[in-house]
Amino acid sequence: MHEFCLLFALLAREFPGIVIAEEVKWKDSIQSSNAVVNLAGLPISTRWSPEIKKEIKDSRIRVTSKVVDLINKSPQEAQPAVLVSATAVGYYGTSETQIFDESSPSGSDYLAEVCREWEATAFTVNKDVRLALVRIGVVLGKDGGALAKMIPMFKMFAGGPLGSGQQWFSWIHLDDIVNLIYEALVNSSYKGVINGTAPNPVRLAEMCNQLGDVLGRPSWLPVPDFALKAVLGEGATVVLEGQRVVPAKAKELGFRFKYPYVKDALKTIL
């Protein structure tokens, strides 16, 4: 039986059985925990003003830095044994041809820079604490995320790929990312960088075709690059460019994906 304490919530939701700790109580919460999971960060699928770009980075690094600092300052007998900290596949930059695994170098764009600093902050945790850094792809689930923006358009017969549709879409079903994080908490073999993506990434056009099939709607109305750039500005790079990321470490560790193929994942969600 485990007790969960939530340190950070952007939304005022009800979490049955979960204690939500205000920031002033993080120290006590961390020191009474066996493990810490850090998933904090402002969503990136928005128009990037200079202020938003600063907040995208600061929201990740500030929280991670505070969590790590509180862990490091904990008395040894009260120090959590494990820190599972989120990062993202944006670490790798973008490419239509390369395949990225955990050994691949970082990219040179803004999101890659954010991820490098985010990870570097987590790596300052005390060496006695097992650290697992999960580079998470696009999470597919029933509530929120990418599908929440795409489904209404498809239901109105106005769905289609964004931009060329040839950009890679490295996704993972919500159940699988939750299970992967759980394994990282309880399995001492899970340490260092682990890609949190399904083993079969797809190009966005295929993702949209599969989504249309499941919904019984066509994927026929692409959104041109210029329209997305007009709405999202620099933030359009999140959807117009992608990366083909594979979970080499998770497979090596024997992690079993419930949903390795996007069509099966979509069927369970929709």
Automatic annotation (TrEMBL):
Domain named NAD-dependent epimerase/dehydratase: residues: 24-187
Keywords from the named record: Signal
Family annotation (SUPFAM superfamilies): NAD(P)-binding Rossmann-fold domains
DUF1731 domain segment(s): 223-269
Pfam families: DUF1731, Epimerase
Domain of life: Eukaryota
Cleavable signal peptide: 1-21
This protein's record includes keyword Signal: yes
Protein name: Uncharacterized protein
Organism: Linum tenue
Source species taxonomy: Eukaryota, Viridiplantae, Streptophyta, Embryophyta, Tracheophyta
